[in-house]
Amino acid sequence: MMKPNKRVAITGLGPVSAAGIGWNSFSPAILKNFSGISPITVFGTDQYRSHMAAHIPAFDIDEYLESQKAYLDRSSQLALAATALALEDADIDAHDLDLRTTALSLGSAVGSLETMTMFFQGFLEKGPRLVKPFLFQHTYSNTAISLIAIEYGLMCMHLNFASGFVASGHAITEAFDLIRSGRTKVAIAGGFDALSEALFAGLNASEFISPDTETGKEISAPFDEHRNGFILGEGACVLILEEFDHAIARGANIHAELVGCGMASSEDNRESRSSGASAGIFNAMNSAIQAGNTDVNNIDLVMASANGSKIQDFIEANALIRLFGDSSSSISVTSIKPLIGETLGAGSSFQIAASIAAIKAQSVPAIINLRTPEKGLQLGFVTDTPLNKNIRSVLTNSIDPGGSAVSFLVLSSQTTI
Amino acid sequence: MTDSIEDRIKKMIVNRLFMRIDPSEIDNTKSLIDEYGVDSVSLLELVVGIEEEFGIAVGDDEFNVAHFETVNALAAFVRAHQA
Amino acid sequence: MKVAVTGMGIVSPIGQTVPDFWDALCNGISGIKEISRFSKDGFAFVRGGEIADFVPNHDFGAHAPISSAASFMMAAASQAIEDARLCEDCDANDVTGVVMSTNFGDTDAAEQLIASLAKHGAIDKHTLPRYLFQSMADRIADRWRLHGPRSVLSLSCSSGTAALGYGANLIRSGRAKVVITGGYDALSKFAWSGLSVLRTMTNGEIRPFDKRRDGTVFSEGAGSIVLEDYNHARARGSHIYAVLSGYGLNNNAHHMTAPSKNGAGSTDVMRMAIEDAGIAPSEIDHVNAHATGTKYNDITETQAIKAVLGKHAYEIPIAANKSEVGHMMGAAGIVEAIASVMSIVHGVVPPTINYGEPDPECDLDCVPNTKRAVPLRTVLSNSAGIGGCNAAIVLTASDTNTSEDRKEA
User: Which CATH superfamily is domain A261-412 in?
Assistant: First the structure.
């Protein structure tokens, strides 16, 4: 006989974003539609088509760590800070965790690309004998997760996902599955990605990001008829997921309950607007809703993946229209990407945090740059100003341009289904 | 006046290991491992640093912690190779 | 829920099909030679497991990969998918997932990106999307029209074994009925220069457990294993090679590069895998060791195996596949899992070659130089990597009852 699945509580939130660092700064910023997007100053952008990003100003890793570190890739700094904040918010001393039932599960799209760049530029300048071993150890994709394990003595289950724009979505889903099956009681789960010139230059060339042209300005405008790409954001967001009874037993503050996660994929959705391309996100949403034993009528808000991409926003909107059917024009839909940028591997994790902010405040941040939705995309977009409404459950999505999709169903901790 | 080999080594150590101290604070006789938190990979970084700074090649059989334990030991190693 | 192994594929320095690889491995053939992928000028170490004679086994059409790394992976995956008799377009219910794993991914793309940036040169629009590790999972999923979960893990040299554990958990969690797992990496200037200055390599022979061992040798290639819900496999009449009955993943939480004291992390991860399989340590018949041939890895791993298995450790054969194949980085775990499965199927443990001088600190039975026939039901396979990553899996004969069967009975 199958054992009943365990329930999963979210008991810690550690956002490190351009719109705010820490829950007490992030949540109000999101709720009042504060955008962290600004002109890039950390490297010159004259040669690029775009010049903006959501860069985190005035960030000092030393504030978050017990001991000073000599060198850390910026992505590792962001991940370490987010972990420290999440543990603090959950009132957990990581050194006291039972390692047999703890998991560390993070994800990022490009990991330590900045250190890789420094290392390989050394190769190009000086040849193979004089490259720096000290930097090389920091180039691995698992650098951040390893440093976190070392920092807190976490000799426990660990996973590092390198699955693009859905990386933290995969990390959180696996943490959820490990808790549901009983193998894990406490999971440190989330994602991170840092701004670097190599990443920006690569994205700039790839035509993913919104360009500054004579005919249109550089803007993150999800679902808008004039949208032309995303604006990159950096950040890390780590969540503490906890087996529900474990959280109750230690008297933890339960922010929300994670009741369902869905993972699916479809054909490449960089170029195709076909219905086949929207099947991935449709299936992911369906599976998250089924896992929550509920139906679309009980969903109060959609925290969309939409980042201003011409194709993926269209695909997501169509999947939502199909999923919500007759009620699609009234379902509240928002996106926080005009506020924190497209944070790649950290995106799913930030959106869960933003969903919790909306549930707690009973208020939905608006899609600030959405003026005129693309024709045919009839959804209840929240525009201009935050919308106050009763929110018990949020469906939140992330889509990777290569076709992967994840969806989560987040429930108010006061709600039972 | 040109820097001594010891001073050049200390500057190299601080730069390469991203240390947040002034090179002059490093004691030439103290263990880099015990006093300044230099680990195994950092020692390898210092080997590359010596190779670049002084144009010498450190063979695999010469990579011995004893040669790299202190600034003085590193300087002696460099002098022996320059001679 | 039981997870079956129903397909395998490989591109390795000693064989580009599973039967060729297995023959070479059992016959103690070394795949290590001087490398030629890039200019050796200035490199301190020049021997590796290069796949110089790679012939793609399929016409991948629009999905044709550009880099060596991706080509190896596509070829290995196509073998595994064919071996598992997963038909074209058969994922009608979107139940087939893809889990790839790698240390370095498409380093060609990364090197191009960084070189262009250094020269302020133009960057091709495909370079960054190609570099994203997720693109490997997409390439395979698109080629075979698979619409289940697709993901990529990167946990240094434990990646391949970690992908098998995660793939198995996707099936246990009901997220997929079939998962195409893969591990891949190619020789590159980026990785080779970094690994060289870490001084873990040898220009001589790779000699795991031998007293004269003085370093590892890195190799390239890919391995792929099709994991499948046991009942799904039975229902469609698949050939079941073995069962993946348990896995463990962890971190030493000690140091980025130095081994943990007494192999605590390695001990712990083996125990996790054995416990997950629901068996006793005494039921392990064979260990396919990580055995890199570096001074410290082989001692620490020996200590850890003894800590987990006690006296029983001396009674079973230990394999060190890297003595023939070299260290295939992100592919190592899957390649060694393939060898472990073949050991169960054929009742043969491949030899540890280049072995001559026993090391009292590595005193387990490493099957020196000649293969050995021995009936096996349960194998433990270990992997580890930089950053303190460890992974272990337990594979059992397909007719072996697992603890779940016992519970159900």
Answer: Thiolase/Chalcone synthase (3.40.47.10)
